[in-house]
Amino acid sequence: MPSFKDLTNACADEWYDYLQHDFVRQLGKGRLPEDAFRHYLQQDYLFLIHFARAWALAAYKSRSLSELRQATASLDTILNTELTLHIGYCAEWGISEDDLSELPESRATLAYTRYVLDCGQRGDLLDLHVALAPCLIGYGEIAEWLLDQDSTLIEDNPYADWIAMYSSDDFKAAMESEREWLDARLSEVSERRFGELVDVFRDATRLEIDFWQMGLDQD
């Protein structure tokens, strides 16, 4: 019976390149150029808006009350908690809400967000969750990996709050809940269907890699 771990194993090279991207390594060491982080923060705001749209689509795609509740709870969290926190965090980096409202989308943001929405529109709820998994589960794994590295700087690291955010108990709980949901659904799919989902997961992970690179290149 396949599981989320089998997805990451099937895309091991891409998953490694995403979790341990140079953007992540520099962030952990406190050496990431501040302009690169600001650019990432701004584009991540736009990504969160589309992330909310994806959960709205998940609500539409839901076939049970429990799935509908899960989707609407995630949508509410993004709209009323995460975006508010993100706007406040951006303000600490000198980026106002007016600045955020006028941002153009980078090509990496366009490609990634539209891919996720397309997966949800043409596929089913599982396709959509698999396309979202590199973000929700991946950020948690990245934070865990950073905390395990001797080279990661916490004290006097300007990005320590970012690491703390994605290693928090609340985020870990959300990550584990999503992993359990995926494990339950993946255990029921055929070999052929699992192969299709591997392709979705690999493409979404590659687009996450491009998102990190977009931050470094400030493209």
Protein model, in words:
It catalyses: thiamine + H2O = 5-(2-hydroxyethyl)-4-methylthiazole + 4-amino-5-hydroxymethyl-2-methylpyrimidine + H(+); 4-amino-5-aminomethyl-2-methylpyrimidine + H2O = 4-amino-5-hydroxymethyl-2-methylpyrimidine + NH4(+). One of its GO terms (cellular component) is cytosol. It is built from eleven helices and no strands. It starts with a helix and ends with a helix. The mean pLDDT is 95.
If you average the pLDDT, what whole number results? 95
What's the number of domains?
A: 1
Sheet with most strands: none
| CATH superfamily descriptor | Heme oxygenase-like
Distance between the termini: 41 Å
> How would you spell out the order of helices and strands?
HHHHHHHHHHH
Q: Radius of gyration from the CA trace?
A: 17 Å
Percent helix range: over 70%
| CATH architecture verdict | Up-down Bundle
CATH fold field value: Heme Oxygenase, Chain A
Shape: globular
How many beta-strand segments? 0
Share of residues in strands: under 5%
**Which class in CATH terms?**
Mainly Alpha
Number of helices: 11
Structural class: mainly alpha
Protein name: Aminopyrimidine aminohydrolase
GO cellular component, one term: cytosol
Pfam families: TENA_THI-4
EC number: 3.5.99.2
